[in-house]
């Protein structure tokens, strides 16, 4: 019988410390480059906030035994809100909804497709998150169709990928999803 390999805590902590030191070093370089090249705009602050976000995500992920699909969904929501907030802070240009959010949606749906293909037997645990991700993925398309945001080819592509991801899920796991829905919701 094979047992899971135990992580060497000392080695893991050492690697984490080195990566954190590298992040502080990178943040310092970003601030210096920002002030030398363009002291009027504080873009280095956005990069440092991005580094901080990455560290919070890594630490959260390492300390919790979480469902991968729920993590994908939460990351999709949080990063989308973050990019929309950044867009508003720097003087709303619309890039968040036409470029950043569609890319985030594509990444989330592609991740879910890979999870579907790789772990079909365990996919029932991910199905509800797939549905929520699909519904959230339709928001930019609906806003675009209502002329509330500009037309963007990335929005169209993201909608297509989300739809394909949902159909793939139904194709590969449809019967199991229906059985699980009947069992859980007593249809």
TrEMBL record:
Signal peptide (residue range): none
Membrane-spanning residues: 18-37, 43-60, 72-90, 96-119, 126-145, 151-174
InterPro entries associated with the record: DUF6320
Keywords, in A-Z order: Membrane, Transmembrane, Transmembrane helix
Top-level taxon: Bacteria
UniProt keyword Acyltransferase present: no
Protein name, per record: Uncharacterized protein
Organism: Candidatus Merdicola faecigallinarum
């Amino acid at each position: 019988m094979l047992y899971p390999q135990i992580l060497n805590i000392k080695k893991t902590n050492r690697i984490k410390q080195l990566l954190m030191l590298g992040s502080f070093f990178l943040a310092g370089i970003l601030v210096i480059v920002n002030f030398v090249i363009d002291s009027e705009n504080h873009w280095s602050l956005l990069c440092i906030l991005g580094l901080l976000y990455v560290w919070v995500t890594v630490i959260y992920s390492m300390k919790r035994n979480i469902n991968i699909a729920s993590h994908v969904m939460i990351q999709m929501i949080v990063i989308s809100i973050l990019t929309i907030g950044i867009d508003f802070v720097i003087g709303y240009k619309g890039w968040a909804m036409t470029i950043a959010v569609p890319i985030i949606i594509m990444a989330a749906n592609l991740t879910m497709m890979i999870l579907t293909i790789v772990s079909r037997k365990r996919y029932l645990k991910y199905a509800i998150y797939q549905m929520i991700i699909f519904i959230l993925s339709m928001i930019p398309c609906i806003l675009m169709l209502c002329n509330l945001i500009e037309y963007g080819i990335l929005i169209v592509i993201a909608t297509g990928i989300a739809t394909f991801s949902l159909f793939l899920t139904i194709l590969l796991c449809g019967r199991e999803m229906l059985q699980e829905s009947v069992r859980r919701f007593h249809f």
